[in-house]
Amino acid sequence: MNKSPFIFSNDNKRYYTLNYYNKNKYGKKIYKAVIDCGLTCPNIDGTKGVGGCIFCDGGSGYFTHSGLTVKNQLEKEYERISRKYGPDAEFAAYFQANTNTYAPCSVLKELFYSALEFPNVCGLSIGTRADCLSDDIIGLLNDINEKTALTVELGMQSCHEETLKLINRCCTHKEFLEGYYKLKSKGIRVCLHIINGLPFETPEMMLETAHEVAAMKPDAVKLQMLHVIKDTQLEIMYHNNEFRLLERDEYIDIIVKQLELLPPETVIERITGDGDKSKLIAPMWSADKIAVLGGIDKKLAELDTWQGRLYTEK
């Protein structure tokens, strides 16, 4: 069997990292400037549900500068990034918190284009839900995609309907697929979010999700462990001992097996999580990101395996 061309990358990784992708595309490292537009979500505002997903604490942008304009947020992010990496550092404007296509198209157009006008912005990354992609919004995203490097990030979490109902996603897997293929029909780069360790999912179920992802052949994937965050419905379930979280070694084993199944050309944008440590309830091992990353690298090397080793194109 042929080895993956990404094993001997400049990252010395056995999977296709975002850093490797960016250095090949741009010739240098690209950073992310996070933005919170103050938007909500259809399973928060009552349109489809209330309370959001059981792990949600009001959006994932915990270190954003909410309440400011896009320009002002980018100014603050530029200060942060340039202070560490220099004044010439380029970054993608990352619309991260909540559902960033859940607003009138005219509002979204103003938000997205204001980010594109900011110096040092080399592209947009827009986090959203697959059921919030109306035809006019797809048209807007298509226009943006013709002008800059665009990535749309979709929360898939799992392919199992019973899990999606349990976590209160209020979006079926069928709806998710419809939104995904709308984007792909326009040639828009898509990154899927997968969560391992969701309540009552077995390792076999997590691998079934990886098989589903592999069949979809996404441009990129973010893989992470389920975090129990303070003041969420998931925290209540955790303290009631309703489910068991994965141990670190279990998580590493699952990640390695998922990587083997994924297409070698799919960029792995995240392989573990680094949530807000001040709100993290469990698992505490996930806070040691370096140890988790090192454990994944070590396991891949011990097994002499790599991303895509077991991938079969359908």
From TrEMBL:
SMART domains: Elp3. InterPro entries: ELP3, Elp3/MiaA/NifB-like_rSAM, Radical_SAM_C, rSAM, rSAM_horseshoe, rSAM_sf, YhcC-like. Its cofactor is [4Fe-4S] cluster. The keyword S-adenosyl-L-methionine applies. The keyword Membrane does not apply. Residues 31-257 form the Elp3/MiaA/NifB-like radical SAM core domain. One of its GO terms (molecular function) is catalytic activity. Keywords: 4Fe-4S, Iron, Iron-sulfur, Metal-binding, S-adenosyl-L-methionine. PANTHER family: HISTONE ACETYLTRANSFERASE-RELATED (PTHR11135), PROTEIN YHCC (PTHR11135:SF1). This is Elp3/MiaA/NifB-like radical SAM core domain-containing protein. It comes from Ruminococcus flavefaciens.
